[in-house]
């Protein structure tokens, strides 16, 4: 119950973060600025926490190049996620983030040449059928660029998950999050001089809130996995759609279209099938034979916060 409670609170924080991302975009903050401040604000928060708890030693690493590579891919995933949040209604952006496990299966089968059975292929077909229903080809309710970056986020976060799985063999989870924030803010600094501009106090307060909610969500996700199994807590991630719908209605007076109510259950069902199958394989074959969905979940926020999920 503690794990479920922590996970539910994490989904509230992540949903709130993406709501704030959309809101700060309405205040004229550019995506480049948002990427920088989202990452830069995490660095002192994580560093301060480790310093206060006497755990700074976990940041020591001999794999800086791997951290930098993971941060480059993760920053691209974060770019896709914040762009989707700004371009799309929140329920649609959240629903598209649920496609990460579908892309993970495709990467496993087509790039890594790993074994993928009928259950996971069925889930992939079912999930992308749900995407087609949500997109509703021929209608104009989803901007093509928004759909592209929304699906791109799912693909990039799936890619990041494999990088994290490699890093997790030698690095502490909090170290992966910290160095991602450090390198991600450095990457975004390159663009900052071209896009930085003065903002109102309200916009700055929203940026601070984005940094806090995103970082706090990462801590909660990590904590939930310490107290419960992935197969148990992953289902709670889908509650993010409830919060996204609520925020969209309360702030922008938007309610999901009928295509969301028809397509989202298909995508969610596909994710649950994949999660169940990975859990089954990990228990009946070996921990290394199945996809490490637990590692993916812990860092899902790079690209969307949902089941894998990265981020």
Can you describe this structure?
It is a single chain. The protein has helices spanning about 1-25, 30-40, 40-55, 65-85, 90-95, 100-110, 120-135, 145-165, 175-190, 190-195, 200-225, 230-235, 240-250, 260-285, 295-300. With about 300 residues, the protein is mostly helical. The chain has one domain (about 1-300). Helix 2 packs across helix 11 and helix 7 packs antiparallel against helix 14 (about 260-285). It is globular. The two termini are about 25 Å apart. The relative contact order is 0.22.
Structural class: mainly alpha
How many helices? The count is 15
Distance between the termini: 23 Å
Computed over alpha carbons, the radius of gyration is 18 Å
Q: What can be said about the biggest beta sheet?
A: none
Give unreliable regions as ranges: 286-301, 303-311
Order of helices and strands: HHHHHHHHHHHHHHH
Proportion in helices: over 70%
Average pLDDT number = 85
């Amino acid at each position: 119950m503690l794990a479920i409670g922590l996970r539910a609170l994490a989904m509230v924080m992540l949903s709130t973060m993406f709501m704030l991302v959309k809101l700060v975009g309405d205040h004229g903050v550019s995506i480049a600025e948002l990427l920088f401040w989202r990452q830069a604000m995490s660095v002192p928060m994580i560093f301060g926490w480790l310093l206060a708890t006497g755990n700074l030693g976990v940041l020591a690493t001999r794999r800086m190049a791997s951290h930098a590579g993971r941060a480059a891919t993760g920053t691209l995933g974060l770019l896709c996620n914040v762009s989707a949040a700004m371009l799309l209604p929140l329920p649609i952006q959240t629903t598209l983030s649920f496609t990460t496990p579908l892309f993970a299966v495709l990467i496993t089968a087509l790039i890594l040449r790993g074994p993928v059975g009928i259950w996971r292929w069925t889930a992939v077909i079912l999930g992308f059928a749900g995407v087609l229903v949500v997109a509703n080809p021929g209608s104009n309710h989803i901007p093509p660029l928004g759909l592209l970056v929304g699906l791109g986020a799912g693909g990039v976060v799936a890619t990041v998950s494999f990088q994290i799985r490699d890093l997790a063999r030698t690095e502490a989870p909090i170290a992966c999050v910290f160095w991602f924030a450090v390198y991600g803010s450095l990457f975004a600094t390159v663009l900052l001089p071209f896009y930085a501009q003065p903002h109102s106090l309200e916009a700055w307060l929203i940026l601070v809130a984005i940094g806090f909610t995103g970082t706090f969500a990462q801590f909660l996700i990590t904590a939930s996995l310490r107290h419960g199994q992935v197969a148990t807590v992953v289902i709670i991630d889908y509650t993010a759609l409830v919060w996204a719908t609520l925020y969209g209605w309360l702030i922008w007076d938007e309610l999901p279209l009928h295509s969301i109510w028809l397509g989202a259950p298909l995508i969610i069902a596909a994710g649950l099938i994949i999660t169940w199958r990975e859990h089954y394989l990990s228990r009946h074959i070996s921990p290394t034979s199945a996809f490490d969905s637990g590692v993916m979940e812990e860092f899902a926020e790079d690209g969307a916060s949902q089941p894998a999920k990265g981020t």
